[in-house]
């Protein structure tokens, strides 16, 4: 569920993680799940099907989105949408003024403009069966606009374990790739986006 603390804003769970107060109820679990699925689909995969006008950088008008949302779910409010965005620990969405967008995960054709990542290395987890193919052919998006890279070995391992029990972690030499004109965008503190990563920048990572 989503609640709001008067001092620390929106949070998920029973009590505010900052001050341990209960706060005001905003959205129950069932409604949170339904709203989250719609927001993800509309902002990442099918904006046109919902009637949204999305610009090239993935932004949609917040008020237009709320109007469309209200037509689909009578219980949905602008606050419920904002609470979903601001309480999301994965930082999947962002609001800037009167506009809203997904930060990553797009299958629609967008050109995101996040800040450039300044880390020297990034990581990408794959199954043992995929490792040799990736090292030979590079990392390319399959169902998404960008490949999603992790900022640490541990985060890459966690992400890969959703799909495989014993992932192989590949290290990307970002410094060298950047010198050769590649761009790596920081979508969140944990996720970095690239259009693709050629094989010459890849190697098997040692733990840590």
The figure for the number of domains is 2
Count of DSSP-assigned helices: 7
Overall number of strands: 12
Q: Would you identify the regions where 5 or more consecutive residues have pLDDT less than 50?
A: none
Q: So, the CATH homologous superfamily of the largest domain?
A: RNA 2'-phosphotransferase, Tpt1/KptA family, N-terminal domain
Distance between the termini: 35 Å
Characterize the structure shown.
It is a single chain. The chain has 7 helices and 12 strands. The chain has 208 residues and is α+β, with helices and mostly antiparallel strands. The chain has 2 domains: 2-102, Orthogonal Bundle (Arc Repressor Mutant, subunit A); 121-204, ADP-ribosylation fold (Alpha-Beta Barrel), CATH 3.20.170.30. The strands form 4 sheets. A 3-stranded antiparallel beta sheet has the order 2-1-3. Strands 4-6-5 form a 3-stranded antiparallel beta sheet. It is globular. The mean pLDDT is 95. This is Probable RNA 2'-phosphotransferase. It comes from Methanohalobium evestigatum (strain ATCC BAA-1072 / DSM 3721 / NBRC 107634 / OCM 161 / Z-7303). Pfam families: PTS_2-RNA.
Protein traits:
208 residues; alpha+beta; Arc Repressor Mutant, subunit A; ADP-ribosylation fold; 2 domains; three-stranded antiparallel sheet; 7 helices; 12 strands; 31% helix; RNA_2'-PTrans_N; tRNA 2'-phosphotransferase activity
């Amino acid at each position: 569920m989503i609640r709001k603390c008067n001092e620390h804003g929106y949070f998920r769970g029973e009590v505010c993680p900052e001050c341990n107060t209960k706060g005001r109820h905003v959205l129950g679990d069932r409604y949170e799940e339904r709203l989250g699925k719609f927001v993800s689909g509309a902002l990442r995969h099918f904006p046109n099907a919902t009637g949204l006008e999305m610009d090239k950088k993935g932004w949609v008008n917040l008020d237009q989105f709320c109007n469309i949302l209200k037509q689909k779910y009578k219980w949905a409010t602008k606050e419920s949408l904002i609470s979903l965005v601001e309480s999301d620990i994965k930082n999947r969405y962002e609001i800037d003024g009167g506009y809203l967008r997904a930060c990553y995960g797009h299958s629609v054709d967008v050109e995101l403009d996040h800040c450039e990542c300044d880390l020297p290395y990034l990581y990408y987890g794959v199954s043992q069966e995929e490792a040799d193919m990736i090292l030979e052919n590079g990392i390319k998006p399959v169902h998404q606009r960008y490949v999603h890279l992790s900022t640490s070995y541990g985060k890459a391992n966690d992400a890969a374990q959703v799909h495989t029990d014993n992932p192989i972690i590949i290290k990307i030499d970002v410094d060298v790739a950047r010198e050769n004109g590649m761009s790596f965008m920081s979508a969140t503190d944990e996720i970095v986006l690239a259009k693709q990563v050629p094989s010459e920048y890849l190697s098997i990572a040692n733990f840590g």
